[in-house]
Amino acid sequence: MATGDIGLIGLAVMGQNLILNMNDKGFNVVAFNRTTSKVDAFLENEAKGTNVQGAWSIEELCSKLKRPRKVILLVKAGDAVDAFIEQLVPHMEPGDIIIDGGNSHFPDSNRRTKELSAKGLLFVGSGVSGGEEGARHGPSLMPGGNPEAWPHIKEIFQKASAQAYGEPCCDWVGPEGAGHYVKMVHNGIEYGDMQLISEAYDILKRGLDLSESEIADIFLTWNKGVLDSFLIDITANILKFNDDDGQPLVTKILDQAGQKGTGKWTAIAALDAGSPVTLIGEAVFARCLSALKEERIRASKAIAGPAKEAFKGDKKQFIDDLEQALYASKLISYTQGFMLMRETAKEMNWELNYAGIAKMWRGGCIIKSVFLSDISKAFLKKLDLESLLFDDFFNKAIENAQPGWRRVVAQAVLWGIPTPAFSTALAFFDGYRSEILPANLLQAQRDYFGAHTFRVLPGKENDKLQPGKDIHINWTGRGGNVSASTYIA
Ligand code: 2AM
Question: Which end of the chain, N or C, is surrounded by fewer C-beta atoms within 10 Å?
């Protein structure tokens, strides 16, 4: 008789840890791996003494599972996922569920949901965040896909996930690839948070001439306030960590950032959606610029910046300003991330659970923070909140932060310390709150050189400038009247 509650394919560390986690929560897990010797090794070592069962073929795996069968794939994203789906399908029956917990790109999950639905099978693409540690003790889980699957996997997922504030860090995200989409945005936001923290470190180090240990103490203080988060906490620990010679280890690390591509995916998705997610974009580009180490060394010798001047102001005040700058910039980054999700949801016809998404990120994952509770509260207050900046709590918070934020960005510019993330956050903020932007001039230029036409500003209409029409003006008195579009004034 089939006794398995859920099967898992892929016995790398993430897979093994997720199995042990689900086993701890009382579920009977059947483990399989392409290289079946890993099944034996797992049962003899890590899973020894647990209820975990092994399977040495896909057929055996499926025969050991209670119906509807549930199988999680934790294998390399891409072809391996499709290969396993193809192998599973002949051994499954309508209503069975295939879950991809890997780092898949959301368009693949959109496609797989549709393909499996046509075969009567239910596909779930789930973001899994929190690394090996999260998988073992409670990750943030972001499942999306065929909604019929959710009632069958809900208990396992919500028990296996991290718990924060008495609630599981897992809820149904939305249809098709929505789970992997939200995981992608999570990773983009993670890029932004890390870049902001690194810029704050740079300002404290190069601007205020503080030591790593002094900076760590500042981060520890910040971690007791609005910035309380996993990333601020580990940053303080990193800065306190000395090498054997007593020097901070961080100062010996090559300043060339790597990336695996999920931040880039978010930036590309933002460009595709026409959504101004500037901070994540800058965070990705900052990593790209850091990668030009050799060129930067040459440039540092050839190109002069402002002369170094000791800070003459009130250091304590400036450090408080920096805390506010970090908080405000982080708020802009999350505002942009949620804007992107809203825009995509509209385009894809998805209904996303924004308060739920914020809650899912409160524990188990890299961006977990106190701040996310305030975000979930804002969306619970108003489910269709257009922007976090319209929420009273955040509106007041950013008003308070504004003076310090501006002082920090201005000072960094004077020092010549790069703050792409802080600066773009402020530029976005100033753009967002501007009723009039210079896009009027831009439209005039487009019409001047390319006859691309423009629309009239409400209140400025006249015979020539008619409302609702695409207007072309003969700016030079030369050339024709033919516009690149339809209407000619
Ligand atoms: P393996 O142990 O047989 O290599 C992480 O790499 C996990 O993904 C491992 O369980 C690995 O299986 C699996 N994996 C990687 N590439 C794969 C492929 N092309 N087909 C099947 N499984 C693959």
Answer: N
- pLDDT of 488 higher than 80: no
Query: Of 172, 194, 227, which residue constitutes the final position of a domain?
Result: 172
Index of the ligand 1 atom closest to the CA of residue 83: 20
35 lines ligand 1 (CB under 6 A): yes
268 with 408, same domain: the answer is yes
In 3-state terms, the chain is what percent helix, strand and coil (to 5)?
55, 10, 35
Predicted confidence at residue 310, as pLDDT, reads: 86
Q: Which residue from 74, 76, 100 has its CB within 8 A of the most atoms of ligand 1, so it is best to mutate?
A: 76
Cβ of 12 less than 6 Å from ligand 1: yes
Are 53 and 128 members of one domain? yes
Convert the pLDDT of each residue in 357-402 to its tens digit. 999 999 999 999 999 999 999 999 999 999 999 999 999 999 999 9
CA atoms within 13 A on the CB side of 353: 15
- Contact between 323 and 225 under an 8 Å Cβ cutoff? The reply is yes
Q: What is the DSSP letter of 411?
A: H
Q: Check: CB of residue 18 under 8 Å from CB of residue 6.
A: no
Cα angle 246-247-249, degrees, rounded to a multiple of 5: 115
Q: pTM (2 decimals)?
A: 0.94
Q: Is 224 a catalytic residue?
A: no
> Measured in angstroms, how far is the CA atom of residue 75 from the centroid of ligand 1?
5
For residue 64, the enclosing domain spans 6-172
CATH code assigned at 449: 1.20.5.320
Res 480: pLDDT = 65
Whether 205 and 251 share a structural domain: yes
Q: Is 255 exposed, middle or buried (0-12, 13-18, 19+ CB in 10 A)?
A: exposed
Measuring CA to CA, which residue among 117, 282, 263, 246 is closest to residue 189? 263
Quick one: 469 and 330 in the same domain? no
Q: Which residues of 377-392 are buried (b: 16+ CB within 10 A; e: fewer)?
A: ebbeeeeebeebbebe
Q: Number of folded domains in the chain?
A: 3
487 pLDDT higher than 70: no
Question: What CATH number has the domain bearing residue 271?
Answer: 1.10.1040.10
Distance CA 138, CA 10 (A): 18
Residue 484's pLDDT is 66
CA–CA separation, 235 and 132 (whole Å): 19
C-alpha to C-alpha distance for 102 and 151, rounded to whole angstroms: 21
Q: Does one domain contain both 359 and 386?
A: yes
Q: How far apart are the first and last CA of the chain?
A: 79
Q: 75 in ligand 1 pocket by Cβ < 6 Å?
A: yes
> Could you identify the atom of ligand 1 that is nearest to the CA of residue 15?
10
> Does residue 1 lie in a domain region?
no
Cα–Cα distance for residue pair 89/118, rounded to 1 Å = 12
